[in-house]
Structure formats: C-alpha cells, structure tokens
Amino acid sequence: MTTEAATIGLTHGGSEDTGLGHRGPESKSIVVPYGFWLFVLSDMILFSALFATYASLVTATDGGPTTNQLFDRTLVAIETMALLLSSFTCGLAMIAAKRKNMFWTQGWLIVTGLLGAVFLFIELYEFAMMIEEGAGPQRSAFLSSFFTLVGCHGAHVTAGLLWIGTMMAQIWAKGFKDHIIRRLLCLSVFWHALDIIWVAIFTIVYLIGTLP
Amino acid sequence: MTEDEDNLLDVAPGIPHSNIVSETVAYVIGLALALILTGVSFWVASTSTLWGPGVAVGLVVLAIAQMGVHLVFFLHITSGPDNTNNVLALAFGVLIVFLVMVGTIWIMAHMDANMAPDPAIMNLQMQH
Amino acid sequence: MSVIFGKLTWDAIPFHDPIPLITSAVVILAVAAIGILVWRKGWWPYLRDEYITSTDHKHIGIMYIVLALLMLVRGFADALMMRLHQSMAIGAAQGYLPPEHYNQIFSAHGTIMIFFVAMPFVIGFMNFVVPLQLGVRDVAFPTMNNVSFWLTASGALLINISLFLGEFARTGWLAFPPLSEKEFSPGVGVDYYLVALQISGVGTILTAVNFVTTILKTRAPGMSYLRMPVFCWTSLASNLIILAAFPVLTVALGLLMLDRYMGFHFFTNDGGGNSMLYMNLIWIWGHPEVYILVLPAFGIYSEVAATFSGKPLFGYRSMVFATMIICVVSLMVWLHHFFTMGAGANINAIFGIASMVIGIPTGVKIYNWLFTMYGGRVRFTVPVHYLLGFMLLFVGGGLTGVLLAIPPVDFITHNTLFLVAHFHHVIIPGVVFAIMAGYTYWFPKAFGFMLHEGLGKAVFWCWFIGFNLAFMPLYLLGFWGGTRRLQHISDPTWAPWLHVALLGSVIIGAAIVLTVVQLLYSIKTRDQRMDVTGDPWDGRTLEWLTLSPPPHYNFAVLPDVHGEEAYWTRKQTAIKEERLIDEPDYQPIEMPINTPTGVICAFFATVCGFAVIWYIWWLAIVGLIGAFAVFVWYAWQDEHEHIIPVEEVRANARERRRIRMEHLHKLSQST
Hints:
The complex is a heterotrimer of chains A (212), B (128) and C (671).
Chain A: H1 3-8, H2 28-57, H3 67-70, H4 73-98, H5 102-132, H6 141-174, H7 178-207
Helix pairs in contact in A: 2-6, 2-7, 4-5, 4-7, 5-6, 6-7
Chain B: H1 20-46, H2 52-74, H3 83-113, H4 119-126
Helix pairs in contact in B: 1-2
Chain C: H1 18-40, H2 44-52, H3 57-87, H4 99-134, H5 142-164, H6 189-217, H7 230-262, H8 275-309, H9 316-329, H10 345-357, H11 359-373, H12 382-404, H13 407-413, H14 417-447, H15 453-479, H16 495-524, H17 566-577, E1 589-592, H18 597-613, H19 617-636, E2 641-644, H20 646-670
Antiparallel strand pairs in C: 1-2
C-alpha cells in the first residue's frame, strides 16, 4: 500500500458513498488551490470595502477636482488591454507549465510580467500627473479614496510581479516539481483575480465615473 | 478517455481536456469575449445610444459578464476536481461583496440625506 | 524628530506615571527571570522544538491559550483598575486616575479582551480540537498555522510595549474618528492600536483560510458533512465569518492609518471626510466578530452537553442549520451599533428586525441543549457547571440584546452602562464560561492528567457570583442615565451599586487567581489524576480515541467513520463484542517538519510595526525586507516533511490497544 493511501487510512475496501469525505482527506493538489481561492475571495471582500468607500466619497471633492476633470479614458483603455492580455499570456504559461516546457513557460511568464509592468507604468504616470496638478490624495476625500482603491490594486499588481519573478527563478533552479506547479497555479489564480478587480475598477471608477 | 477528432476543438470550459490545442482555444475564446465586452463597455460609455440612466446599469451588466468570462474561461471555476466547493465559496464571496457594497451605499446615502444643512445655508435661512 | 530614532525619545518612558512605570518594571523583571530560569534548566531546546517552531496543531493551540491566559491577566487588571477608580470618583471624590490615563485603560481593556484574550482562546481551542475531531493528522496548512500564531503574538507584544514606551490609544476599543485622527490624537497611542491589530489581523485571516479548507477538504474517510461533530460545524461557521469580516476591518483600520500617516481625508472633519463611514465599516466587521467568538463557544457547549448527559446531541440537523443561519445573518445586522447616527427610521427598522431574527436560531440551540440533557444521566462535572450557568444567564443577556435591537429603546440606552452590562452579559456567560468549560474538558487530552475538580468548582462559583455582582447593577445605572466610560460619577446615589460592582470584580479576580492555583496544584499532584485511557469523560467524538496526549500524528491509521458520533458507536461495538477492531496494517507516516518561519517572520513584523509607530522609516523598511526575505527563504526549501518510521507508529499503537483492552476488561467485569 502506498504511503499516501496509508496516510489517508483506507484500511478496508471502500466505504459506502456518503458524499464528500468518504475518500478521506483530499490530496495537496486540491487542498492548496482551494485554500488559495479562499484567500483570493477574502481579498475581493477587501476590495469591496474599498469600492464601498469610493462610492460613498466620490462626490466629496471639497471644491477640488472631480472625476470628469481628471480621468483620461484613452490611458485607461491601454491599461485595460495590457492587463487583459497579460491574463491571457498567464493562461498560456500555465498550459506550457502543465507540459513541463521550460522555454514556453518562462517566455509567457516574462510577457505576462512585461504587460503587467506596462500597466503599472501607465498607472504611476497617471498618479504623478494628478499629483502634479494638485489633485493628490491629500486634496479631498474623493481623491483619497481614488488613490487608495486604484493604488491598492496597483500594489497587488506589484506584488504579483515580484511573485512572477520569484516563480521564474524557482522554475529555472528547480524545474517543474509538484509544489512548484501548485504555486504557479496559485499565481495564475491571483493574476486572473487582479484582472477581475480591474474590470470593476475601470467600469465603476473610470467609465461610470465620467459619464456626462 | 477517447476523444474523437471532431471533439478536439470542443472547448466547452466545463469539460476537462488534456489537449493543448483545445486548452489554448479556450483561453483564446475567453480573451475574444473579454475584448468584445470591454470594447462594448467603452463604446456604451461614450455614445448616447443607450438611454442616459440606463448606461450605468448597462456598464455594470457588461462588467459582470466580463467577470464571468474570466471565472469560466481563465479560472476554470466550473471545471476542475470538486469544483462545487469552489463555486460555493465564490457564491459566499459574492454575497458578502453585495452586502458590504449595497449596505454601505444605502446606509451612507441615508446618513448624508439626513445631515443638517451646510452652516452657510443655515445662516442665510436664519437671517429671515 | 530624528532620522535614526524617529519620534522615539527618553520621554517615551513613563517616568511621571507610577502605575505604568511600576507595572512595566515588574513585567520586564518577570519576563527576564522566566527567561533565565528556562535557560538555566535547559528547557529552551524543548520549548523551541516542541512549541516555538512546532507545526503541530495541538501545540499551536496550546500556545494560543497560554497567550490568551497571559493577556487575560492584563485585561482583567485594567477592569479592576476601572472599577476601583469609579468607586473612588463619586461626587466630590476624584479617584486616582486622571482622564488621559483612565481613557487609555478602558481602551486597552476592550482591545486586549476581544483581540488578545477571547480570539486566541477560541482559535486555540479550534486548533487543538478540530483536526482530532475530524480524524485527521493536522490542519491543511501546518506551517501557515504556525505563522498565524506568531503574528497574533506579535500584535499582543506591541500592545504590551505601549505600556512602557509611549502610551496607548484613548479612543475606546474601536478608535472612532475624528477623535482618533492625527489632529485630536497626535501621540503614538492610536498608532500602537492600529499597527498591532493589522499585524494580528493577517494572522487571523490566514487561520480562517486554514480551517475552512481543513473542514471542507480534509476529514477522515466516511466522515460526510452531516457526520461531523457540532464543534466542527461551529468552527466552520466561525471561520467563514472571519474570512468575510476581517478584510473589512483591515480596510477600516488601513484607511485610518492613511489619514494619520499620509494626510488623507477619509474620516477627517475637513477635506470632505466622513467619519460616519468609519463607523459603518468597523461595525460591518465588529458585529460578526462577536459571532466569531460565540459560535465555537456554542460548539463547546454542544460537546459538553452530549458527553455529560450520556446522550447524543438533540436535534443535530437543526443545530447545524441554526449555526449556518447565524453565520449568514450575523453579517446583516451591523447597523444596530449605530441606530442613533441618523440613517433614519426605515433603515433602523430593517436592521432592528434582522437583529431580533438572529435570536431565533440561538433559541433553537438553547432548546436543543435543554432537550439533550432531558432524559439523560447528567454528571455534574465542572464543564456542566459552566453549561448550566451559561444556559441560565445567557438567555437574559440575549433578551437585553433584543431590547437594544428596538431602535427607540436604543436611542435611550445607546452607549449607557445598560449596553456595557448587555455585552458583558452575553460575552461572559457565552464565551468565557465556554472557554472555562472547554479548558477543563480538553485539558486531560492535552496534558495527560485532569485538573483538580474541587478547585474547578470554586473557580466556577467565583465567576458566577462575581459576574452577577459586577454587571447586574450596571443595568440599573444605565437606565438611570449612566453613560459608559465615565471618569467621574456625579450622582452620589449610584455609589452603593458601583461598590457592589467593585465587589463583583474582586470576586472575578479571585476566580482568575484560583484558576492559576488550580493549574499549579494540579500539575504538582498530577499523579493522582492521570488520564490513563485517553477517554476520561466517556466521550463521544474522535479526539477521545487517542491516548492523552496524542502522538504528534494523532492517529496511527485514520479512523473509518460509519455514522454520527464516530467514536461512540465504535466504542459501544467494542464493549459489546469485548474486543477492539482488527489490528490494521501500519505504515510510515509523513508529517510536516518544524519551522522557524513563523517566529522569525513575526519578529520582523514586530520590528516593522514598532518602526512605523515611532516614524523610524529606515527600520520599517528593514523589517519589511526581512519579512519578505524570510518568506522567500522558506519558499525555496524543498523538503517540508519528515517520515515517522513504522516501528514507532506500531509501538505507539500497540501500547494504546493494550491500555484499551485492559480498560475493556475492567468494564466487562463491572457489568
């Protein structure tokens, strides 16, 4: 009997099918992504609190700049394209990783990271422009909530880039071991979730926010 | 598991496939749908094709559709081993997101409505 | 302000305040003395290997509970100081605590009791018990479990450092703006509060991820959802609430930090800020928080009721259903904490009704416990004392809650002593009694010997009498207009009631002292109360299958579960057939290795947190980089498990079987 079977404890032939749990504990390849998915959901709840804050404070401009005066839809469109494409290339990286192909995995991961960096660069540029024209986060409650919501997402993207870099190093040094693949899976879940949050941001903050 | 030649391109995301082409095509379809939905969002927001107050609603619907595309085509939420727990967890998350956002907006709107008027206006009112 | 030391100067040490100065000196000396004693006796390697770096859920659970007990002493000291001061500050008398000091004490009392006593206790019990009851070897993510504990400890450490370096927040346990904004609280107190809670909050969210995954994805073979013990169901519900609510706490505290540190305008009076938004966000977390505490408490009561009545829990399915309803509805009632803030009658009505509705599933639970005991052969052990005390008292506390849920009533009683009485009335019989019951109930499983029963009953009576004396007068005082958090009492007719409350606090103090005495005495005389079989209470759930304490891997072979009350049915079969199940085929067992990741990560988190509080920016960056580096170093390791050889597994298992056979023979001889 294998160690895993003994760990699971299947000492007699099959229990009756009592639904989940009749097999015993699930394997790591199921447990780890599920746990990470739960963490991602808690992160989404964090963003929902930031969205709720933004919605409450969007009109609290204290006589200062408003959404219509500040947001540039062209820049947002480019950011959106970059992040969406990076989600796609991340998926391609996962397909390559499943086949343990070093070249394509690293290749698509680099592209994903570069597209993420493009997104960040544009966002930082936008922030710098706004601060320069006196529309920084200390100007009003609306601007505080804008910078925090969008900035928090940007911080998550930054963390994602660091993670991509770390994973590329680990894959190169250790190959496609089981736990490395699991981590890649978690990274891709994280990266896709970031794009989901961005959909909410560009819709609510930039599009609905600048309707005539 | 047998796969006919015809089914190589069968890319319904709910079916786990071990074929590189069908997996890739799934992502391509997801990307295409997302691009279309994003494009429509930007377009809806900039033209007056939709009735004014309906634009915001339309944008929200499009956003939810885009999130759905991501969940199904990129995150494979409907496939994968024991995906029921994943979907249940997502449902729980969506419920909380809804409670937090709608609850806060509803409460804060009422609070703002019940606030005393601006002191400047109050002064004017009191001068009569 | 300097670059090297930030805001930190010699003035941070409270040379002019005798109470914190002397307390700090005593604590530092005591910690140093214990450290030297441990070193001299050569206990450090044992502590390091068995506890500090342990990934064993049982030992992590014990560490949580030790932390909670230590912080209970400080939280209670704050309470006693408040009671003493209020008794001495009536009419012309001024008490001994100036307002700026008194305000720190009530803020520290609430913060410590909720975040660093009740939460660690509850999480500690869940850690110790849930994997055992599920029939598995550990939680889903053992290393992350270790990290969670040490992050919580880091938060507790920072709160304690505030006693001798700087000050604590004066803003109550929830730090409402605008008072908690930079303009009105320029000192470090609020920053200590915010940073400590953010750090420990991360640990708590990770715990929730861990336990939801464990309960939903890793259970013994045959244990379907409806065969799980009720304590596991309540742990699931509690952790789901943590997952839902703690991110909102992170946001609320984070936004306040942004206001204070970077001049943002979320909750300020100027710039368009809205302090009511903070109230809304913090209570979206704050209400579910109390259910995070009380649901596992209810689970403990369910276990105690069934075991000591000698009957299965009455209405298992309705209990599960009620638990999950409470889980969801608890996230829908938060506005009842600010009925008076002006949302208007309609919103108040809806949240008021929801708050009353949540009493219904709670009532279902009470009836289930009652019917569990009815017709059973109830043994009046110490845990049952707490169960009965809870059932008697908690209903009253819940009823005052229903009263408060009526907005017009709340307009009169909001923020009065009536409210203070209410929440202590539900938390002490609800959560604290359950903690004491669980502590007594599972102590033998953790350490292999029972606590002294007589002293345990004395502790209970001190809690029961002390609690009633300390808090019932507060209901009256609240009705008579007594506001909470008063540093001076102007109405001299309140004096007798306040003195009664002080007496009650002193009796609760006796309970805490007796708990320590009980522990030390029980350790000293443990040979008289050894738990030989591992099943001292004739238990019904799987943790009683093992010897006490269980081996690191819990079970030699994961038990096959065939019905509800997995262990009870197996035990009855064994008694009837007068034999154990056939000896299984033992295999080597893979268990996670120890890890220093948690304690080192928490060390850097503490360094970073301390630096942020005192504006020492270079140190904050060092702390952050250090924490990240530890994480990357850990992630780079390849081997995370070690194998326990089959000979060891077999030897332990055969010892257990031998003891159980002996016990079986004794049982059949006596019948």
